[in-house]
Amino acid sequence: MVTVKQLQNNKILPKSETTEHLKCPLFSFQGVKTPTYNLGSQSLGEKTSSGGLLSNPEEEQSILDALLLAQWEERMWKGYFRYDVTTSEVKVISGRGKFLAQLTEEWSMDCLSKAEDSKVCHQRDSFLFHRINHHEELLFCVASSDKTNSEFIPLAAVPNGAILIIVNATPLEYGHVFLVPYGPSRLYLDSTFLEMMLRVTVEINNDSFRLFYDCSSAGATHIYFQGCYFPNHLPVELMHVDTFFSDGQKGIRISTVTDYPIKTLLFEHTCNIKIMVELISEICSHLQEKNIPHNLLISDHGKKIFLFFQTTSSDLSAWECGGYFLFRSKYEFDQVTEEAMLIHLSTVSLDDAGFEAVKQLSGNIASKLVI
After folding, report:
1. Rounded mean pLDDT of the chain?
2. Dist CA 142 CA 34 (whole Å)
3. Can you count the helices (H) and strands (E) in the chain?
4. CA end-to-end span of the chain, whole Å?
5. What's the chain's Rg over C-alpha atoms?
6. Bridge-based pairing state of the strands 163-167 and 174-181
7. Which end of the chain, C or N, has fewer beta carbons within 10 A?
8. Is the Cβ–Cβ distance between 266 and 255 less than 8 Å?
């Protein structure tokens, strides 16, 4: 159940209050108010006795899903984006892998509305927020709450520890947003932030919604996720898997994605988010210590997490690892082949020995956590 508090006034993030307030590494929002969605101690579905959160795919659209889409679509109708992503051409690349290619000639890494007005720096093809000058780039925020039920507040101060939902003016797909933790800089993916991300996917409760996380060997001064809606499964989600760890009581399963060009593990849970986030965050911590680039794809209402492994000389995005490729050139889009994409992925993949070591590490950490 979700409650909604009445709107006290109709002013959301006045521009004069946002000019100097979103900075890296610490975003400052003193005096700023924005729509806020507080996550309750229960999910939209039933909270299990084992600490898990379960969504109910059959129920009507959730408030959080409606909020994200409404805010994003409002910006779209106002002409905020640099192009209409709904007109981008998408095709299935011929072949067994069914890789997806998208043509968007206007796409760029300058993800804010006006690059000349918003300071954005680039590091290994990723962005770091330095300042947001346009208040409409912040759609709303998501925060934790001690209350049992989730609650939507149309206007509230941004609480410490909240997740800022920031629009991307050069979207990859429908509803493309950044999910950025508000507070002191995080240099690694900790369990608190990851749990918030899984709870967001549970409460959005939409089969099409995916979350992505990229961690390059170079690191970053502020970590973040990206989220958007895909009308169909990504190719990696349709691949066969080989399970090497399973604990029925705790509902945790770890599998290798077979016959896929980039080394990939699939983590699944049926009821226990707590163990899942501890497992993934500890593995990612080890990977970062060993300077191994990796990516996460979260799907199926947070029940599935794909972990991709790359070499230190590469920096593919999580959606590329998942089999979704974006092209700015019509010629390259028309000429792309599955063979080229297989080479593109396999040449940046972690080697066999490294992958076996990561599998062993994952099994050992999982065995420790499920005891």
Report:
1. 82
2. 10
3. 8, 18
4. 33
5. 20
6. antiparallel
7. C
8. yes
* Residue 160: predicted pLDDT: 84
A 10 A CB-CB count for 290 gives: 13
| Cα separation, 175 vs 128, whole angstroms | 20
In the numeric block, which tokens belong to residue 170? 């050069």
Ramachandran category for residue 288: left, alpha or beta (phi over 0 → left; psi -120 to 50 → alpha)? alpha
C-alpha to C-alpha distance for 57 and 206, rounded to whole angstroms: 7
Q: Which two tokens stand for residue 343?
A: 């080479």
DSSP 236: G
pTM (predicted TM-score): 0.85
Q: Residue 326 is inside which H or E element, if any?
A: strand 324-327
What are the structure tokens assigned to 231, written together? 């009308």
Handedness of CA 338, 343, 345, 351 (dihedral sign): positive
Element containing residue 227 per DSSP (H, E): strand 225-229
Which amino acid makes up residue 133? N
Q: How confident is the model at residue 55 (pLDDT cuts 50, 70, 90)?
A: low
CB count within 10 Å of CB 257 equals 19
Spatial strand order in the sheet of 100-103: 89-92, 100-103, 324-327
Contact status, residue 287 vs residue 308, Cβ threshold 8 Å: no
| Residue with token string 């997490």 | 305
How many whole angstroms separate alpha carbon 191 and alpha carbon 196?
A: 9
